[in-house]
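[recover] target loaded
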């Protein structure tokens, strides 16, 4: 069984008299900073000069300074800028001020696991990775609940790294839901695999192909959208609430039988082999090298793929239908 920690297993007081520096104020950054602030911690937000987020953070009552200043003052430094920006931010504005008394933290292990960042061996390095988007994390916290997080220790020269990371996890609210112990390697590789094969790549490709199949067969695009995209939330909510058994209990017997008899024909052994290949590319570092190279070359392929995706007919049909359903915005 995995090791789980809750509020009773840690001590938020570990962060007392410490400055927690949050580098970045995007989806994750704003949630971490505000949750920690509301938990009574001394928080500083590190941004580049001229950042559009500077005024937002100040309006939220947070202390804001340039990254280098925050790195100098903070005892705990959490890097929450995008993966591909972390190396430059770290080398230019954080590394010069790292000392053995500081703790360097991450919410995703990519930069550490693939050696984009190599911290000094006398610095504590840990991870708290919330398993929800930042805006959801913040919303749940304001309702006196929390989202689960993963905790991992990469370097522990002080002998107190886990204690500090656990206090941080409690501070952002995850002690209310559960903090699961893992490693940087496991978190990074499973996170990438989940995104690519199931949560993002798998789901969107399945939806798009189903939509295309129905339209190709002569059915109205609007009906295809409802059947292959709109109703996904219904099923996901049931899965989220009670697992596959609860979802199957909640749908019709016709849908349940179709699940058992046709699902494995769509997601078959060929798909399993493809998933294994995707996982091997992640484990070997091939995907990381490809993504780093794509960034170094100016994101030309990535931007074209983004453009092509945005122009797919399912997006046009979906926008028109969603515009007729304004109540959808209230359910997000």
């Amino acid at each position: 069984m995995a090791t789980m920690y809750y509020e009773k297993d840690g001590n938020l007081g570990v962060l007392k008299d410490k400055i927690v520096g949050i580098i970045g104020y995007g989806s994750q950054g704003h949630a971490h900073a505000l949750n920690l602030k509301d938990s009574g911690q001394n928080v500083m937000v590190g941004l580049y000069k001229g950042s559009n987020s500077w005024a937002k953070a100040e309006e939220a009552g947070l202390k804001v300074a340039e990254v280098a200043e925050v790195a100098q003052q903070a005892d705990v430094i959490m890097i929450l800028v995008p993966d591909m920006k972390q190396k430059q931010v770290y080398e230019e504005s954080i590394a010069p001020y790292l000392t053995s008394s500081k703790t360097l933290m991450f919410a995703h292990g990519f930069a550490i696991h693939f050696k984009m960042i190599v911290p000094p061996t006398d610095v504590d390095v840990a991870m708290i990775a919330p398993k929800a988007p930042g805006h959801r994390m913040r919303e749940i916290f304001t309702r006196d609940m929390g989202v689960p997080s993963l905790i991992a220790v990469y370097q522990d020269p002080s002998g107190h790294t886990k204690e500090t990371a656990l206090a941080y996890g409690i501070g952002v609210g995850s002690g209310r839901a559960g903090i699961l112990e893992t490693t940087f390697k496991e978190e990074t590789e499973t996170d990438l695999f989940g995104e690519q094969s199931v949560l993002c790549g798998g789901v969107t490709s399945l939806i798009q192909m189903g939509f295309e199949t129905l339209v190709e067969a002569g059915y109205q695009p609007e009906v295809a959208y409802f059947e292959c995209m709109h109703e996904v939330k219904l099923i996901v909510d049931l899965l989220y609430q009670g697992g596959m058994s609860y979802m199957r209990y909640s749908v019709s017997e016709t849908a349940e039988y179709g699940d058992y008899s046709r699902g494995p024909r769509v997601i078959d052994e060929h798909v399993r082999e493809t998933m294994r290949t995707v996982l091997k590319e992640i484990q070997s570092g091939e995907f990381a090298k490809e993504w780093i190279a794509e960034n170094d070359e100016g994101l030309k392929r990535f931007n074209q793929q983004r453009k092509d995706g945005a122009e797919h007919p399912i997006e046009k049909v979906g926008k028109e239908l969603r515009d007729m359903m304004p109540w959808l915005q209230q359910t997000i």
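[recover] notes: Residues 111 and 153 are 14 Å apart (CA to CA).
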